[in-house]
Design goal:
The chain is mainly α. Helices cover about 70% and strands about 5% of the residues.
Length: about 220
């Protein structure tokens, strides 16, 4: 899910978004140890905003702060991802149902357009990732529940990181199709259809996670 604005906003949110990108795309590899000064250079942002971003990611379980050693990028663990998906299935079901009920005419139109874009991104993981962020932004706005969105945010980051780790096994066409189906169902105010599409998305993620036995 696209990041929600944090308490500090501004540079802190920029640092958070850039750090998220490095984690999701594995530019910061799972298990790597990185120094705060190096992270500031890579993010091209000052120490205070970076520290804010690090604390948020640590709270999400994606970084571990090791005193006098640096920052440990959390490994990708099958056992943890199973918990992520278990939680995501319940919370996101509520979000898509509420979004189906509450989406405005403009939001429904934007979801229809996004569905078409997702269909065109079937073989481009980077484009699909950008569109997935946009889908989550639209669902968050339509759902009208900030607390629910904040609870889902770290779960989506963990899932996206798994996508990149397992991209050789990811059926991008299937993933794009499922996300397009979700967008169209919400646009049509079809809560049952949105739940079916979501179940397909979670099921596909469970298959990817099943290939992480060596890292469990």
């Amino acid at each position: 899910m696209a990041p929600v604005a944090g308490p500090g906003g501004g540079m802190g949110q920029q640092a958070y978004r850039r750090l998220e990108h490095l984690l999701v795309t594995l530019a910061l590899a799972p298990g790597a140890l990185v120094q705060e000064s190096v992270l500031c250079e890579r993010l091209q942002i000052g120490r205070t905003p970076v520290r804010e971003a690090v604390q948020r990611m640590a709270g999400h379980g994606l970084l571990r702060v090791l005193p006098r050693k640096g920052l440990l990028v959390a490994p990708v663990l099958r056992s943890e991802l199973n918990q992520v998906l278990e939680t995501r299935r319940v919370l996101e079901r509520l979000l898509v149902v509420k979004a189906s009920e509450r989406a405005s005419i403009d939001q429904r139109g934007a979801l229809e357009l996004l569905a078409a874009s997702l269909e065109r991104a079937r073989h481009d993981l980077q484009a699909f990732l950008r569109l997935d962020y946009r889908l989550d932004e639209l669902l968050a706005a339509a759902g009208g529940n900030t607390f629910l969105v904040r609870a889902l945010e770290p779960l989506h980051i963990h899932c996206r990181r798994c996508w990149f780790l397992r991209q050789s096994s990811l059926d991008a066409a299937q993933a794009a199709g499922l996300h397009a189906a979700l967008a169209r169902a919400v646009a049509a105010q079809d809560g049952s259809g949105a739940i079916r599409a979501l179940n397909g998305i979670i099921g596909a993620m469970e298959e990817l996670v099943g290939g992480l036995d060596a890292l469990s």
